[in-house]
Amino acid sequence: MKLSVLDQSVSLAGAGEDAAIRDTLDLAVHCEALGYERFWCSEHHNLHTIVGSAPELLLAAIAARTTRIRLGSAGVMLPHYSALKVAEQFRVLDALAPGRIDLGVGRAPGGDMRTARALNPNAAAAAEDFPQQVQALQAWVGGQPLHGIAAHPRPPENAGPERAPQLWVLGSSDYGAQLAAHLGLPYAFAYFFMDGQGVEQALDLYRSLYRPSPRHPKPQATICVWALVDETDEEAQHHALSRERWRLDRERGVFGALQPPDGIARRGFNEVEQQRLVPMRRKAFVGTPADVGARLRTLAAALELDELVVNTWAFDPAVRRRSYALLAREFNLAGAAR
User: Fold this and answer.
1) Chain centroid to CA 103: how far?
2) What is the pLDDT of residue 125?
3) Segments in 199-308 forming alpha helices (H)
4) What letter does residue 102 receive in the DSSP assignment?
5) 191 and which of 18, 56, 160, 223 could share a cystine (Cβ 3.0–4.6 Å)?
6) Quick count: other Cβ atoms within 10 Å of Cβ 276?
């Protein structure tokens, strides 16, 4: 089983948002040393919690600090941009980290529609062109000209297809699964965003409809889960309070920096919130490494996956690093014993 990381540059109460960006860089170095397969950065806009708004810039900085781990976007919200410009950015990243770049793309706005229109005045229409944009990216990031235009810098003439950025379709519905299958591309399902709802159907559609492509003769799928582990179940549950509070606030349309768990524990939750937490906690991967590891293995086996992408939030950066380290040890990743 391979494990990878999705980081969202989450802001923390009492700290500047810029600190979240620097913490992403440090976490990438940490996870490479632990033996994680990939490190993906998300793109969100106009959110006071998730402040990673430019994954391509973050990835360039991470490329300068790492040597092995694959680096990618999860994802670039393609309708905001020109496909050619995105292709050029990721061809530059490939020049900085040859053979290590993933380009995950999504159709969702990554924020509200007002912000989407600020990024692209034709946002609504652009979303309808998503399949055509992805096809253009396939050519340009692979070093092939399209419409007489090439995305530079081009790869070396003798470079194999594995050298080019690997294009992924990201999604949380059947739409992305069907598009990835039609184009012969890898597919990642946002399990953590949907609490797993619809994952079986999306993966079944992807595999049954898959059309082999030269680079990907067989379907390649993964899911992104949210998980937090600690030495004891009590410690893990305590640190998970920060995200639980955020999720409850999000349902009320309130977005803010992640709050410390000690304060949340003191204030507690009202009766309605406690009821909302019951199903949320039932689906959460929170606990000891052995418990969470067993549940993740069961999920991966049921979905026939050999790789999981893990997203972890914690108010204390040290807690988050410890969680990734304990999971790496539980799954016997290459660097976990260091």
Assistant:
1) 11
2) 81
3) 199-209, 233-251, 261-267, 271-283, 289-303
4) E
5) 223
6) 15
